[in-house]
Amino acid sequence: MALSPGPDNIFVLSNTLYNGKKAGLFTVLGLVAGCLLHTTLVAFGVSEIIRYNENIFFVIKTLGFFYMLFLAFKVFKSSNFFHLKKIKKIKRSNLNNFLTGLLMNILNPKVYFFFFTFFPAFIFSNPIELTYVSQFYILGILFMLITAIVFLLIVFFSSFVSKYLLEFKNFQVLMRWTQFLIFISIACLILYSV
Predict the structure, then answer these.
(1) What is the per-residue pLDDT across 151-174, written as a single tens digit (0 to 9) for each?
(2) The whole model's pTM is what?
């Protein structure tokens, strides 16, 4: 699942190419931290409340939709051109990149469905041996570890490639519009999902 191309993978790739390795790393930390919330919700049954209450689910979808539109607007308003030397001098907010990844994960209803649809199917022992809560956390930690490894590989690959690509003016424009379209696409997927 972590290897399959999706909005998170594409965002990690484009954010690293556009804003540098450090931005990519903190985005990955945010995305992985969001999985901890989903694991907790599944482990303690809160996800069942969200699953059967359409109003709560609608609020999550709406927040996710508007957050993605906000990110698309920020990219649209950003400068077309930049240079690697300028990127190194600009102090990007690590917290901002972390929170972007975290909110992308938390406000994506598809992630909720993934966790409470697939995780229960992988319970691996009788609750007498190990509680269901413990089993959900073990599964969640394994998923976060695998996701972190895949996303970090994307960060290191894209930061290596960016040194060669960012010197081309057309690539910079392409990356800006790609990021913009990614956010708009994620917003539409969230709004019309499930």
Answers:
(1) 999 999 887 877 666 566 676 677
(2) 0.69
- Let me know: does 10 contact 87? Beta carbons within 8 Å: no
Question: What is each CA distance from 171 to 157, 174, 176, 179, in whole angstroms?
Answer: 17, 5, 9, 12
Answer left, alpha or beta for residue 189, where phi above 0 means left and psi between -120 and 50 means alpha: alpha
Residue pLDDT, tens place only, 37-59: 999 988 888 656 766 777 876 77
* Amino acid (1-letter code) at residue 94: N
Q: Read out DSSP for 133-168?
A: HHHHHHHHHHHHHHHHHHHHHHHHHHHHHHHHHTTS
Instruction: Tell me 127's DSSP state.
Output: T
C-alpha radius of gyration, the chain, whole number: 18
Residues 101 and 30 sit within 8 Å (Cβ to Cβ): yes
3-state helix, strand, coil split of the chain in percent (to 5) is 80, 0, 20
Please report how many Cα atoms fall inside a 13 Å half-sphere around the Cα of residue 75, on the Cβ side. Answer: 25
